Amino acid sequence: MLTLARRRAILVDGVEVERTPLLVPSFSSKGFPDVAKVVAATSEVIDGPALVSAYDLWHKKVEPPFDFAPLLFLDSGGYEAGRDVELSDVGDREHSPRPWSRDKHEEVLAGWTPAVPSVLISYDHPDERLPVADQIDRARSLAPGRKGIAREILLKPETTQQRFLQMDTLLQPKHVRALGDFDVIGVTEKEVGNSLLDRMRNIAHLRRAIDGVGLEQIPIHIFGSLDTVSTPLYFLAGADIFDGLTWLRYAFHRGLTIYRHNYAALDLGLNTRAHVVDGRCWFSNYYYMKDMELEMRRFLSTGDFASFEHHSDLFRKAHESLLEALEG
């Protein structure tokens, strides 16, 4: 069976620190003003990689060390710096961005002395867009010569008028070869395509392109995708690392991503107080994510869609549709 999904390593100083697929819980002050309290509460159960924002470090929304995680992703700050939202965002909190700039991002990185290996993600701001070649050049200057870190480029649209990545430009051979300067390649879910199949196809095109120039071991990171249906679909298309805030906003339940209060009615009881529901959801979601990782890894070993407890037939059919779309 032809599949683009593989095990890939995250290397720091040439040493493997994690093996994909990875589902990474994210933390952000955007939508979660008390993000430091959320980090403190959930750090009791998190024993894998996590993601925090350089923007939140600069504005002291969170404070290191984050030594509960064996690997930390330090995000670009672009999400918090804008009013734009993830696909999972419910828009229940008004967000007023505070100042963010490349200088601030570089100052955060310069002061970053992590207790654990880290993946540093290239600077982003929604009001600052560059051609792909310039994005790559700027990201090359990310934390030069630093030990204990891996470098990730977050690829973005080239202008503020573009909603999506321009795949024809991005996949030019000179750009694809230049991506070999990075340890991880990142794109956002909402910018990589306009439908699930379109996103799967574009992820697969990116995967095939970087594999084609000998970069098959570089993981692809999908920002803003962390749920019970789309994440496995992007995995089947060749992506490796997935993060998002869905695990804090919703509840994962029997293959579905549902409202937290519905999870309370189904599993906790009608009288369960809201703050208790939040904490129970976060803990339950984290363990659900770990189970999803295991399902993905079993699939890599067996090639059997029955490795997925839920939606196995949907995933099989979606994979067949992807392969047909790629051939077309």
Highest-level CATH class: Alpha Beta
CATH architecture: Alpha-Beta Barrel
Largest sheet properties: 8 strands, parallel
Cα gyration radius (Å): 19 Å
Distance between the termini: 18 Å
Poorly predicted parts:
none
Structural class by secondary-structure content: alpha/beta
Strand order of the largest sheet: 3-10-9-8-7-6-5-4
General shape = globular
Topology of this structure?
Layout: E1 9-12, E2 15-19, E3 22-25, H1 35-42, E4 50-53, H2 54-58, E5 72-75, H3 78-81, H4 102-110, E6 118-121, H5 132-140, E7 149-154, H6 167-170, H7 173-178, E8 184-188, H8 196-212, E9 220-223, H9 230-236, E10 241-244, H10 246-249, E11 251-253, E12 256-258, H11 260-268, H12 274-302, H13 312-327
Helix pairs in contact: 8-9, 8-13, 11-12
Q: Please, could you describe this protein's structure?
A:
This protein is α/β, with parallel strands linked by helices. The protein has one domain (9-327): Alpha-Beta Barrel (TIM Barrel). Helix content is 39%, strand content 15%. It is built from 13 helices and 12 strands. It has helices spanning 35-42, 54-58, 78-81, 102-110, 132-140, 167-170, 173-178, 196-212, 230-236, 246-249, 260-268, 274-302, 312-327, and strands at 9-12, 15-19, 22-25, 50-53, 72-75, 118-121, 149-154, 184-188, 220-223, 241-244, 251-253, 256-258. The strands form 3 sheets. Strands 3-10-9-8-7-6-5-4 form an 8-stranded parallel sheet. Strands 1-2 form a two-stranded antiparallel ribbon. Helix 8 links the parallel strand 8 and strand 9. Helix 8 packs parallel to helix 9 (230-236), helix 8 packs across helix 13 (312-327) and helix 11 (260-268) packs across helix 12 (274-302). The longest helix is centred in the last third of the chain and has 29 residues, at 274-302. The radius of gyration is 19 Å and the shape is globular. The two termini are 18 Å apart. This is DUF993 family protein.
